[in-house]
Design brief:
Strand content: 35-45%
Oligomer: single chain
Shape: elongated
Largest sheet: 7 strands, mixed
Number of domains: 8
Protein name: S-layer homology domain-containing protein
Radius of gyration: 43 Å
Number of strands: 52
Distance between the termini: 62 Å
Keywords: Signal
Length: about 900
């Protein structure tokens, strides 16, 4: 259907319309007389615009749009100052509103004749409808087609939603957009119900955000439009008008003083408008009513005024076009209206406007003469006025003198400032450092700020905004790692020395309960370290807590065959598994192990007979240990279950093939009675040899895994755990010697706590070792991607640690694994452990704002109100959950119904609740 405007001169319309009216199928209805109290009213110079209607409450969803159109004179009320917002708008009323919106009512009122129309309307509306036909706002063909069976007069007929979309789109001159979108698909499910001509108009109105759907993405094209909805559609369409009412002024706020709002338009012209008790102010972004104090200098506003009085103001953009300058007040020259501020690049002298406004950080007014020297101030200058002076001063911080307790959050050496996490407020505070600062360490030593560590617990003193003193109460735990070649180990195993990269020596004390890891050795100790080992040291506050042998100059030979042993020369000749001969010297320090017995060198001859198979640990040409081969360890590289053969890659790098006893048992941590087919390539095993040393008669699968403790039962010595896949396991800890607790001098079963992590090693079904992992849970206060470190403030203690994560780490967040440290954000709550492969694992807690329902003290559960996201409503607590308000601990039963909280959840359990 052709939807182009039909332009017909007013002088020619009467004859055509009268002829057409004679051939319509339905009779012509005489219009009832209409009075000025109709819902659209008569606009004239004497008319008073009604902006408040008795039946439209301030809470009505369309109050803004109704008020706006009333202020523009587009709508007026009925008797008793009523708008009747829920009444259906008639087609004739909609046309009058549209014409007034276009600012063309004065042209309509020039029509003095009583035009004959092809449609039936009330008398008052005739000139408007004739004008609408003439201007193409509606067309004869569209409005008379298919109306023969409709008994309701055209003018009184309720306007449909699709018909209103057409009229509004034409009102704002967007006919071409509707034409472009006529062939586009509709977003609405009920598009099949649209009239053939309507798709383009509805699509255009939707794209311009003038109309939207009713429910479930339906438009209901034949549905009626209420008067409130009609006002809303026209109000939203107003932004598309190219020619606005003379009442409308758009510009930028220059000032707001003594109920006078001064604005400047984009041509640089300024004007002033009075705001009285009847003036209403709305925010365009959410249609909310706002106070006049919300309007800031250089905000963009839309004003409807009459004779210099603003009846309606809309904040169309909260952006301030202001230049900002911040510094410390050095001097104030009121007689010259200038201010001197100190910045990083020196002293800056700035000119002030005579009417400069001064506020504190919360917006409270201040007198310019009362700003203390030394205050941190922000100066703002209007950028829409060329060469403008500073018109606003915000006093962000007055000179401060205080003492406080907290921790060091950061030391900015270049800016010569220190940030503290204040213990009382829980907030980070930053201060410049005085030239005369005194820093005292815990032992009373005086030093400078270079000795401060992030996380140090300190007392500090501030005078006139500068830090003048810091007393370190407790230095932060600093975890570092370093690699080098082992050069010496003291006899008492208290000091270890390495040759660091760059050929510098480093000597370190060894912490109690420090652990040693050497690949291939079960339960290694510092006695197993050898000079020349390439080691990685993990240090806590410069003390060794762990030594890992990365590689060593010690050679391991598995299943060497003795060719000869000369006890006089102490010379041992062997061949490896491929037949290559080797000769080694024995010394008085060489140990011989036969089964579990350690024998002196005098007993070597009777055991080191030709053909015996032994395992050797050799340094150059000297034998450190000889052990009669009773078992072999390695990684399965080949497996032939048909021929009962297995190939192992040993710790020394040898690939050795073994026969296995038919029907042998393969023992694992989950199945003590497995069979050979249970093995797979890549498994690490321990194989027990027959007495002849040529066949494996039993296999134990070796496994090391990290588990989370669910329950540790001291009476049964049983530990229930789960792995990272959620699989559940139970193991017995029959002996406290199996427990290693690097963070404590003790190693008791009671050290195994629920919600903590353990690293468990098995040999077959036998538990060999349980290492309690040091789990850190806290709030991120700093992330340094350059040094790969994360600074954490522990949740319960408040202690701060700097954790080096290195290059091998994984971040888990919302079930997704990430590998970029930048994924971490300040104030994230995290849990940090090392997994089975000693890779740092950082798990980010899920954070949300929730409302408390109740606390169940029987089940120790917190119940929450349902939210829009459909999240869980019942949570258990971590064993060491941190419940607090500020720095004050809160009991679990201290959370009451309807209380708003910040909730942090890890592994479906609450680790922290923060009260606002």
């Amino acid at each position: 259907m052709n939807n182009k405007y039909t332009q017909i001169p007013t002088t020619k319309i009467t004859a055509g319309l009268m002829a057409l009216s004679m051939i319509l199928a339905s009779p012509v209805y005489a219009a009832d007389p209409i009075t000025p109290t109709t819902g659209v009213g008569i606009t004239n110079s004497a008319a008073t615009t009604i902006t408040q209607f008795a039946d439209v409450s301030p809470q009505h969803w369309a109050i803004k749009h109704i008020t706006k159109l009333a202020s523009l004179g587009i709508i007026q009320g009925y008797e008793k100052a009523e708008y009747k917002p829920e009444n259906s708008v008639s087609q004739q009323e909609a046309i009058v509103m549209a014409i007034r919106m276009m600012g063309l009512e004065s042209e309509v009122l020039k029509i003095k004749s009583d035009p004959a129309l092809p449609v039936v309307v009330d008398s008052f509306f005739k000139p408007y409808i004739a004008f609408a036909f003439d201007k193409g706002l509606i067309t004869i063909k569209e409005e008379t087609e298919g109306t023969a069976t409709n008994k309701t007069a055209w003018g009184s007929r309720p306007a449909s939603r699709e018909w209103v979309a057409k009229v509004v789109v034409r009102t704002i001159g967007k006919e071409s957009l509707a034409t472009q979108l006529a062939a586009a698909s509709s977003v609405f499910k009920d598009a099949k119900d649209f009239s053939s001509w309507a798709v383009g108009y509805v699509n255009a109105a939707v794209s311009l955000k003038i109309v939207n759907g009713i429910d479930e993405n339906n438009y209901q094209p034949a549905g009626t439009v209420t008067r409130a909805q009609m006002a809303t559609f026209l109000s939203r369409a107003d932004k598309e008008l190219t020619q606005r009412s003379e009442r409308v002024v758009i510009g930028y706020v220059l000032s707001m003083k003594d109920n006078k709002l001064t604005i400047q338009n984009d041509k640089g012209q300024s004007s002033e408008y009075t705001m009285n008790v009847g003036t209403v102010i709305y925010n365009a972004k959410d249609d909310s009513r706002i106070p006049s104090t919300t309007l800031k200098e250089t905000n963009e506003v839309y004003i409807i005024q009459n004779l210099g009085v603003a009846s309606y103001v809309e904040l169309t953009s909260e952006e301030q076009k202001m230049e900002s300058l911040e510094g410390t007040l050095k001097e104030l020259y009121l007689n010259q209206m200038r201010v001197a501020i100190t910045q990083a690049n020196g002293i800056n002298l700035v000119e002030l406007a005579t009417n400069v406004a001064v506020t504190d950080a919360e917006g409270r007014g201040l007198s310019i003469g009362t700003i203390p020297i030394g205050s941190i101030i922000e100066l703002k200058r209007n950028m829409i006025i060329p060469n403008s002076k500073v018109s606003q001063i915000v006093v962000k911080q007055v000179p401060l003198s205080k003492t406080g307790e907290g921790s060091v959050a950061s030391v900015q050496k270049e800016q010569n400032s220190i940030s503290f996490l204040d213990q009382a407020s829980g907030q980070t505070e930053t201060y410049p450092v005085s030239a005369k600062i005194a820093v005292t360490l815990p032992d009373g030593t005086l030093t400078d700020i270079s000795k401060l560590r992030i996380g140090d617990m300190v007392g500090y003193e501030v005078k006139s905004n500068e830090i003048v003193g810091v007393i370190v109460r407790k230095q932060a735990d600093i975890t570092t790692a370093i690699q080098g070649i082992l050069t010496s180990l003291s006899e008492d195993k208290k000091i270890l020395t390495i040759n660091k990269p760059g050929s510098t020596l480093g000597a370190y004390f060894i912490a109690d309960n420090a652990i040693v890891e050497i690949e291939g050795l079960t339960n290694p100790s510092f006695f197993d370290l050898e000079i020349g080992d390439d080691v990685k040291l993990e240090l806590l506050n410069e003390k060794i807590v762990k030594v890992t042998v990365m590689s060593r100059s010690i050679n391991l030979m598995t299943l060497a065959t003795i060719v000869n042993y000369d006890p006089d020369a102490k010379l041992l000749t062997v061949t490896n598994d491929s037949g290559t001969p080797y000769a080694y010297k024995l010394t008085d320090n060489t140990q011989l192990k036969v089964w579990e017995a350690v024998l002196p060198i005098s007993n070597f001859a009777e055991h080191l007979t030709k053909g015996k198979k032994v395992d050797l640990k050799v340094s150059k040409d000297k034998v450190l240990t000889i052990q009669l081969t009773t078992q072999v360890e390695g990684t399965v590289t080949q497996l032939n279950t048909t021929a009962n053969e297995i190939t192992l890659r040993t710790i020394g790098g040898q690939n050795i093939n073994f026969k296995v006893l038919n029907g042998l048992t393969v023992s694992s941590y989950s199945n003590p009675n497995g069979i050979l087919t249970d093995l797979k390539i890549g498994d690490t095993i321990n194989g027990t040899l027959t007495q002849s040393q040529d066949m494996i008669n039993m296999i134990s699968l070796k496994k090391t895994a990290v588990y989370k403790v669910l329950i540790a039962n001291p009476s049964s010595k049983q530990v229930s755990v789960k792995d990272d896949t959620g699989a559940l396991f139970v193991f017995d800890v029959t002996n406290n010697d199996l427990i290693s607790n690097p963070s404590k001098a003790t190693h008791n079963f009671e050290d195994i706590q629920a919600d903590e992590y353990v690293k468990v090693s098995y040999k077959g079904s036998v538990l060999e070792k349980v290492v309690l992992l040091d789990t850190l849970r806290g709030k991120i206060t700093a992330v340094d991607t350059a040094t790969s470190t994360v600074t954490i403030q522990e949740l319960v203690t408040g202690n701060v640690q700097v954790v080096p994560v290195g290059l091998q780490f994984v971040i888990k967040q919302n079930g997704v694994s990430l590998a970029a440290l930048s994924a971490l954000k300040l104030n994230d709550r995290v849990e940090i452990i090392k997994n089975a492969g000693d890779k740092v694992q950082i798990t980010v807690a899920a954070a949300s704002k929730r409302t408390v329902s109740s606390y169940d003290n029987v089940l120790n559960q917190l119940l929450l109100k349902p939210n829009a996201a459909g999240e869980k409503t019942t949570y258990n607590f971590f064993a060491k959950a941190y419940l607090h308000k500020g720095t004050t601990a809160v009991a679990a039963n201290g959370f009451v119904e309807n209380e708003e909280i910040s909730l942090y959840v890890l592994d479906d359990k609450i680790i922290e609740i923060e009260k606002p």
